[in-house]
Amino acid sequence: MKKVGMLTVGQAPRTDVIPDLDSIRKLGFTFIECGVLDKFSYDEVLEKFSPEAGNKVLITRMGDGRQVTICWEKIYYLIQECITYLESENCEAIVFLSTGDFPEFEHTIPIIEPGDLLRSITSELVANGPIGVIVADQGQIEHIKQKWSSKNIKTVLVVASPYTGVGLEKAAQALLKAKVKLIFLDGIGYTLKMKQKVREITGLPVLSPRTMIARILEEME
Predict the structure, then answer these.
(1) Which of 49, 136, 169, 195 could be bridged to 59 by S-S, CB 3.0 to 4.6 A?
(2) Max Cα separation, the chain?
(3) Do residues 59 and 187 lie in contact, with contact meaning Cβ atoms separated by under 8 Å?
(4) 141-169 average pLDDT score
């Protein structure tokens, strides 16, 4: 497998993510990127895709680096369009650059949805927890808490934006005080520098979706 589609719920190219996956390039992978918000301006995204009360929330990034909050139910058809496009580009697999959970899509090649997969791996690394989980926005807390509770692991959830950098040190300190056993960065937006910063503050193992995705793709090579 040499050509991999990278599907972001924000805008492509994800210049903040792909450099952290450079280790894969040594194996000769080619990444084809597609973003569900590529066709829209910032103002159009706010108008068309902002969540309403009760909606599931996704936090993502525009091409200029601005953070946006969108409703995943409203972008379903755009995700399917991206999948169809990436298949037409002869990709051999597609990776969702998101730890959100999604419904089924029509596809003819493997799709890697990191969310539940990485949570399952992380939950197996500790007996009873607690696991520290850093999420991007307060509006995600309840939904993500439910996803972790299905793994029968105690968690402590805190908020820090991966796109503005606000709150990361405070979040790390809160998890250290809560005596968690390891920390999971529950969002693709968290950089390897952020992972290292959290590790330095807490002295704990910190798991990053970016590096975990890289390892999975290496195994599929």
Answers:
(1) 136
(2) 50
(3) yes
(4) 88
**Across all residues in the chain, what is the average pLDDT?**
90
Give yes or no for residue 144 having a pLDDT over 90.
Answer: no
Sequence letter at residue 180 = V
Q: What is the DSSP code (8-state) at residue 126?
A: S
Task: Tell me if 151 sits within 8 A of 127, measured CB to CB.
Answer: no
Spell out the alpha helix ranges (H) of 32-140: 42-49, 76-88, 114-123
Over range 184-189, report the average pLDDT: 93
In this predicted structure, the answer to whether residue 27 has a pLDDT above a threshold of 70 is no
Residue boundaries of the structural domains of the chain: 3-114+212-220, 116-207
Kindly state the helix (H) or strand (E) to which residue 147 belongs, with its residue range: helix 141-149
Fold classification of 3-114+212-220 is Rossmann fold (3.40.50)
Terminal C-alpha separation, the chain? 5
Q: 94: Cβ–Cβ under 8 A, 6 or more apart, which residues?
A: 4, 5, 6, 7, 83, 86, 87, 107, 109, 110, 111, 112
Asked: is 116-207 a CATH 3.30.420.40 domain? The reply is: no
Q: Residue 72: what residue type?
A: W
